[in-house]
Specification:
The protein is 52% helix and 16% strand. It has five helices and three strands.
Length: 107
């Protein structure tokens, strides 16, 4: 589950409507999108992208690699999918082991 608050989306700041969030629910490491919530202003205008992603079995990679115009509310969806990769990077035990090995070599 990945949650991104509207106050981190530039478009909501320009409209002075920054209360709300986007939540995307995915499966494991592959990142198939199986659910989503958007709570806040104009949620109905941007939920369609996630509804289509669920229906077509798309992954967060599919959404993240799609162009999202700046500054729009839909950019918040891309920012939410980017959290998947951020978390994957942070918690990857392989990456952690490699980094520890490099640090050990440098010391």
């Amino acid at each position: 589950m990945y949650k991104h608050h509207f106050n981190k989306v530039d478009r909501t700041l320009t409209e002075v409507e920054d209360k709300g969030f986007i939540k995307i629910i995915t499966t494991g490491w592959r990142g198939n999108i199986i659910g989503a919530h958007i709570i806040g202003p104009h949620a109905g205008e941007i939920i369609g992208e996630l509804a289509l992603a669920i229906k077509k079995g798309l992954t967060v990679k599919d959404i993240s690699s799609t162009v999202h115009v700046y500054p729009t509310l839909s950019l918040g969806i891309r920012q939410t999918t980017n959290l998947f990769f951020q978390r994957k990077f942070e918690f990857s035990w392989v990456i952690n082991r490699v980094l520890k090995f490099i640090v050990k070599l440098l010391n």
